[in-house]
Design brief:
Helix content is 66%, strand content 4%. By secondary structure, the protein is mainly alpha-helical. The chain folds into 2 domains: 34 residues, no CATH class; 408 residues, Amino acid/polyamine transporter I. Helix 5 crosses helix 13 and helix 7 packs antiparallel against helix 11. It is a multi-pass membrane protein.
Length: 471
């Protein structure tokens, strides 16, 4: 039996992989050692195998999902100028939050997920609260993606079968791809998914620009876009619209996992920069163009704004992109549970029966949970908005402000100069603004759920009705 001693040396090429020497009958064997995954051997998966371009693709896919399709509707609520300003502010705050994730990971290589941050800063309670929030958030978003896939399949097949069957098919496909063990192998699927989704959205953007009027506009009278430069929303409407922007950028908690599986985490910054540039340009460009041509008749999701034919084609192209998002949203909480159960065990990186049993159990357990909530809970769209406002904001704003303060507050860690004072103010602002958006957005979501029930009594569980008619 090998007696292992962990003799950490300098990082290899800056990627935080250290060497561990195992002494035994075979002599001294030196293997790469990761603070999270342990020894990296040829007998198991190599979790540290994602390049910076692949990381950027995963980051983009974690953010560009169904959220981008709701941005034109949010512009209709706020007006195009306030909408762009609010979107840009959310982009700036979340970009800083995402950057802090990479910095914190480099300083604390033992960090794997946002729950580890909770433990480090707030103790056991912080760990469990953020852990539960992370799993629930992505499980609910995965459920929303399953519904998105079912909408696409209904649109393409003209409601070929019962919608409940399409949701089940979406769960099987999403769970199957999510069972791929390493993000390195999933990065290519993420790139393909991003490409498909962007193509479909650009197609709709071009179509609404060349068509006489959007699909839902009146057909019997002359029509001109009624887009608003400045809107006049109520407080609830404004908060809900801003929450849409937050949801569109709320991939931050996933970035811990992406950083943990990079070959060289020092390249995290370049991956993030590429991601945020592409995402923000897409959000602003697509949102402005679609809203300018559609005005108040913009559909949400926006793929239904250009008429039945374009809707069918665009959804057909977008389905792989929505599947890729569902795959990530199932994989991430499944991987978190897997690492938490087996961390420190040889089974984490070995192709053993225990390894495969725990891994598949975690992935398919999340898949089943997401399928149940996507099929069984009435007013699901409102409930997802509620979870996004409550948990998405919580994990994309407040912890990152606390992370900077944790690493820089004491005099021993950072010289207290003007720059330090500015960053303290900024960090406190991020925490405060995140808390406000969380509380206000949750309130707005609850009001929206109540209004939905008052209008139509909610939706039925496991319904066969065509859910693409309204989009």
């Amino acid at each position: 039996m090998l007696e292992k001693t962990h003799e950490q040396k300098a990082p290899l090429e800056g990627d935080q992989l250290h060497e561990v020497r195992s002494h035994g009958e075979e002599g001294t064997v030196t293997r790469p050692y990761d603070p999270v995954f342990g020894e990296i051997t040829e007998d198991g998966p190599n979790y540290r195998n994602v390049g910076w371009l692949g990381t950027s693709a995963l980051m983009i896919k974690a953010q560009i999902g169904l959220g981008v399709l709701s941005i034109p509707q949010a512009f209709d609520v706020l007006g195009i100028v306030p909408g762009v300003i609010c979107l840009s502010m959310v982009a700036a705050i979340t970009t800083w939050s995402d950057y802090i994730v990479g910095v914190f990971k480099l300083r604390h290589p033992e960090i794997y997920g946002i729950d580890d941050v909770g433990w480090m800063i707030f103790g056991r309670i912080g760990k469990e609260v953020l852990a539960a929030g992370f799993v629930l958030y992505y499980a609910f978003v995965a459920g929303a993606m399953m519904l998105g896939i079912s909408i696409g399949l209904n649109a393409v097949t003209m409601h070929g079968v019962c919608t409940a069957v399409f949701v089940a098919v979406a769960a099987i496909i999403g769970g199957g791809f999510a069972s791929i063990r390493t993000l390195g192998k999933m990065s290519w699927l993420a790139m393909f998914g991003v490409t498909c989704l962007v193509i479909s959205i650009v197609m709709v953007t071009i179509a609404v620009g060349v068509q006489d009027r959007p699909a839902t506009a009146p057909k019997d009278i002359p029509w001109k876009s009624d887009f608003k430069i400045v809107g006049n929303p109520t407080f609830v409407e404004a908060v809900s619209a801003i929450s849409t922007f937050v949801f569109a950028y709320a991939g931050t908690p996933a970035f811990f996992s992406f950083a943990a599986e990079m070959r060289n985490p020092q390249h995290y910054g370049r991956a993030l920069l590429l991601c945020q540039i592409i995402v923000t340009v897409a959000y602003v460009g697509i949102g402005c163009v679609v809203y300018y041509f559609c005005g108040s008749y913009v559909a949400s999701p926006a793929l239904g704004s250009a008429g039945p034919l374009i809707k069918k084609i665009s959804y057909g192209i977008a389905i792989p992109g929505i599947v890729a998002t569902a795959m990530l949203c199932i994989h991430l909480p499944g991987k978190y549970l897997f690492v938490r159960f087996l961390r420190g065990s040889k089974h984490l990186t070995a192709n053993s029966v225990v390894h495969w049993s725990v891994w598949l159990g975690c992935v398919f357990g999340i898949t089943l949970f997401a399928y149940i909530i996507s099929s069984a809970i009435p007013v699901f769209g409102g409930l997802v908005s509620f979870i996004g406002a409550l948990l998405g904001t919580l994990m994309s704003f407040q912890p990152m402000g606390c992370m900077w303060l944790y690493d820089n507050w004491s005099k021993e860690k950072r010289k207290r100069d003007i720059q330090w004072a500015f960053m303290v103010v900024w960090s406190v602002f991020v925490v405060a603004s995140g808390t406000f958006l969380m509380v206000a957005g949750t309130y707005g979501s609850v009001v929206g759920i109540i209004d939905s029930y008052q209008k139509n009594g909610g939706s039925k569980a496991w319904s066969c009705a065509d859910n693409s008619n309204s989009v």
